[in-house]
Each structure stands twice: as C-alpha cells, then as structure tokens.
Design a protein that fits this description.
Radius of gyration: 28 Å
CATH architecture: Orthogonal Bundle
Oligomer: single chain
Largest sheet: none
Helix content: over 70%
CATH superfamily: MetI-like
Distance between the termini: 47 Å
Strand content: under 5%
Length: 290
C-alpha cells in the first residue's frame, strides 16, 4: 500500500493562531500629524498677509504687517505682560466662580422639581439680558477695579455650564439607576455612580464653551471701565491709532483663549479617559491595532 502523506497544515488557521498570539509583534499606530495641516495653513496666511502689506505699501495704521506686529510685541512686552496678567486673573476668577455656582444649581434643578419651577425661569431671563448692557451698571456699583470684569465674565460663563450640566444629569441611564436602587443604594449612590459619570462629558462640553467666552467677558468688562488689562490697552491703542499694538493685544488674547481651552481639554482627558469622545478617530472606526 502506498504510504499516506500527512495533510498540509491549514495556513489560515496557523495565521489566525499567530495573530491571536499576545507575544506576536503589534502593528505600530501611525504618527498623529493632524496638527501639521493647520500649522501649514497658518504659515501660508501669514506669508500672504506680509506679501500684501509689502506689495501694496499699506500704512501701518491701517494694516500692520506680521513683522510690525511682532516688533510691537517685543517693544511693548513689559506693558503687554502686565496687562495679560490682569486679564488672565479676571478670566480665571470669573470662570471658576461660574463653575462653582452653576454646577450645584444644576444639581438642585435636576433633583427638586419645585426648585426648577421657581429658579429656572429667572435664570433664563437673566441670560436674555445683554451682558454688555449690565457692565456700565456694575462699574457704577463696584467701581473701576476687577470686580465688574469678574462679574461680567461670571455671567457670560454661567449659563452654558448650567445648561450642559442639566442635560448631562438628565441623560443618565434609568435602568442603571434602578439597578443601584435594587442593590440598596440611596439617592446619593444613584447620583455618584450613575448620574455624575453620565453628566461629566456634557459638563466638560459646557466648560469648554465657557472658557472661550470668559476671555470675551473680561475684555467687555475692561472696555466699559478699566485702567489696566488687555481690553484697556486695546482702547488706548485704538485712540492713538497704534494699530500694531492693537494687533499685538489681539494676538495675545487669541493665544490666551487657546491656552485655556486646551488646558480644559487636557483636564477632561485626565478625568474621563473612558469616554468615547477621548478616543482617537482611528481607534473608534478600526478598533484596536493588532
């Protein structure tokens, strides 16, 4: 009888076993270069800006070039630094007060129906009032110190955080809440284990909106009445037709807003790394790399 030959090994099975082997080398994820395109676009915009100002000989009081703006940043660095510290303090103070006030109020609104019926209509009414219309009144009441600027910043930041926190607290899974109650948990257990984790992504969404508006609130307060700060520097540069200093102040305000926004985004990533919004698009669409 002819000798039987051993069946050829199943290559697909072998490949699947090798793939499932945890010791097998993992494919490296591609380097994230998402920042490169915005950076290149920004450089192109700056280059075109410089070229237009140079070719058409636009005077500096109408449109300063990027070189003139940088020169103003350097020559006025001491004054700009002091004004930046003042405005940053007003922004951070008003923002933190808004977080400290809006989150507990949102919890009370969600927890007690009678509190919502009494307080919420007045909060909406306050939101409809233009904040810039209240700024002169705050100057009359509290003077030209940092108080009116902090108060305007607080009012601008308050409602976005409140609304998103309410939405998050009401978006929790009712089945999970029932499960906690079934296991003997009370109202606090339901809140800390179910409602609060569900509300955190919404809370951070409102906080990120509010931190960008906080810069606007501080500058609006300084426009109405101030003797220091970037808003006051903007008004003074405008009165003196010092457009390079005007642009330099705007650049600093933009950088300040970006820095605060990304700081809040970093805190969000550290607090809720488990949420789907903190995963990269590649990880969500294609799953974990093998």
């Amino acid at each position: 009888m002819p000798a039987r030959t051993a069946p050829a090994p199943d290559r697909s099975a072998t490949a699947s076993i090798a793939t499932a082997d945890p010791a097998a080398p993992r494919r490296r994820r591609p380097l994230d270069l998402g920042w490169l395109v915005p950076a290149l676009v920004g450089l192109v915009v700056i280059a075109v800006w410089q070229l237009v100002v140079t070719v058409f000989a636009i005077p500096a009081y109408l449109l300063p070039s990027p070189v003139q703006t940088v020169d103003s940043l350097v020559s006025n660095r001491v004054e700009l630094w002091g004004a930046t510290l003042v405005t940053t303090g007003e922004v951070v103070a008003g923002f933190l007060i808004a977080v400290a006030v809006s989150v507990p109020i949102a919890m009370l609104i969600v927890s007690f129906r009678w509190f919502e019926r009494i307080v919420y209509p007045f909060l909406v009414l306050l939101q409809t009032v233009p904040k810039i219309a209240l700024a002169p009144l705050f100057v009359v009441w509290f003077g030209f110190g940092p108080g009116p600027k902090v108060l305007v910043t607080f009012l601008i930041c308050f409602f976005p955080i409140l609304l998103d926190t309410i939405t998050g607290l009401r978006s929790s899974n009712p089945d999970m809440a029932s499960l906690v109650r079934t296991m003997g948990g009370g109202r606090w257990a339901v809140f800390s284990k179910v409602r609060l984790p569900s509300a955190l992504p919404h809370l951070f969404a409102g906080v990120k909106v509010a931190i960008t508006l906080a810069v606007v609130g501080a500058v609006v307060g300084e426009f109405v009445g101030a003797t220091e700060g970037l808003g006051y520097l903007l008004l003074r540069a405008n009165a003196n037709l010092d457009t390079p200093l005007l642009f330099a102040s705007i650049v600093i305000l933009t950088i300040l807003g970006l820095a605060l926004y990304y700081l809040v985004s970093l805190i969000e990533r550290l607090v809720i790394p488990w949420h789907v919004s903190q995963r990269s698009e590649t990880a969500v669409t294609s799953g974990p790399a093998i």
